[in-house]
User: Fold Argininosuccinate lyase from Methanofollis formosanus.
Amino acid sequence: MHRDLLRRGRLSDDRTGEVMHFLSSMTADHWIAEMDIQVDMAHLLMLREKEIIGEDAARALMGALLSFHEDGVPEEAYDECFEDIHAGKEAALIARVGEEFGGRLHMGRSRNDEVATCIRMRLREELLGCMAAVCDLRRVLLDLAAAHRETIMPGFTHLQHAQPTTLAHHLLAYEAAFGRDFGRLADAYGRVNECPLGAAAFASTGYPIDRAMTAGLLGFERPMGNSMDAVATRDFALESLSACTVMMTNASRLCEEMVVWSSAFVRFVQLADGYSSTSSIMPQKKNPDTAEIMRAKAGTVAGALAGATTITKGLPMSYNRDLQELTPHLWRGVAAARESLVVLAGMLSTATFDTDRMAAESDRGFSTATELADVLVREYGLPFRTAHSVVGRAVKQGALDLATLEAAAEEVAGLSLTERGLTAERVAAALDPAISVAERNAIGGPAPDETARAVAARNTDLAADEAATAGLAKAIETALARLVDEARRLAEA
Ligand code: ARG
Assistant:
């Protein structure tokens, strides 16, 4: 076979291997080979339904397509003498059933709508995989949060001890971010799942095709509305990569914390051996390599988005070959995001949190000073700014005991706290991290009763997101199973 039939007419075939390799998308086309067969099946069913193709040709072609579907596209279709898998597979079909029949499949379409349809189909799968993975990660975070509502730890701003919080509160912050990531992926999915097939090169076609039929057979929500847009746009790829990039920044921040928390300085967490590596020279080392690689993958995904946007931004309407160069960025980006989330869920669910270390750090550096200032406001009538100054002055003196506070209040505001009723016991209670946390029970706060409510509410949202993902996946699975059934019926008719 090994001959690009597309060059048989207008062009000579005297190209160097370098040029063939340079022009061919073959190395990335294995991502869409399976989809290309499904696209062919749907197109052929429609051509037959509309009587655009004869019965014998349709039957022979469908038989060959079914054998490609079952055994894979033949190896020779991947030769780089072909621009892409679409041309290679067409040549393989013609080699199988002859040009009289095999040469009829490409009626009413172009590789421009063909490739866009294939990319959207594969991307659907990848997005659903990402959506399921982010749900699994959220489940891990929520389960850990439920178990650590009473685990007091220091909260940080500027990576300085700031105020006590709980591990549950910290993990719920990440879960909230990943919940929004799910929303962005699901939103992108809706726009990915529209069908370009039938747009042909860009100007649609004069054959009496049925675009709604092919869209339905392939599990798409609807045919795309404008045939030029259908082949020209890759905004669906950009927004998918964008959603993945944002999601990976969240994953990367969590990984950064795992790196910091697992260091000997901090010791808040130990990653399981399965998620750690050692050193080739230092036998004592246990390194958080999975977290580090994932921090880097965030850069890989952002780079894929940068590559894809830069490729797209200067292109005139409609299809331009530059778009071929975008597709590998898409696969690299979504694959890195998807595998990262799976690994992250495993890393967290097998990690051991050192709750004693967290508790021991939770009141370091006067981190309950804010609560003490609040108590001076709520119970002893000081304006907040005055209380802030009094407590700050006492911290500067190096102690938050009654005597130091009393002196600070005299100095800063000329008032006596003991005269207003402040006692050493009240000061001690205000400085207790657990009491300070329990006070913070407004919506979204770290108090154990509030995080219990939050975990329950988030579990409800997560269950809905899981069900939605499963529903979308089922719809695709059902459509594609029906497609193959109908293909068999045609082949055997
Ligand atoms: N290999 C091309 C791509 O990946 C496919 C289709 C269009 N090719 C063309 N020469 N018009 O974008």
Remarks:
- The CA atoms of residues 46 and 214 lie 6 Å apart.
- The pocket of arginine is lined by residues 25, 83-84, 111-112, 115, 319, 321, 323-324, 327 (CB under 6 Å).
- Residues 448-492 form the longest helix (45 residues).
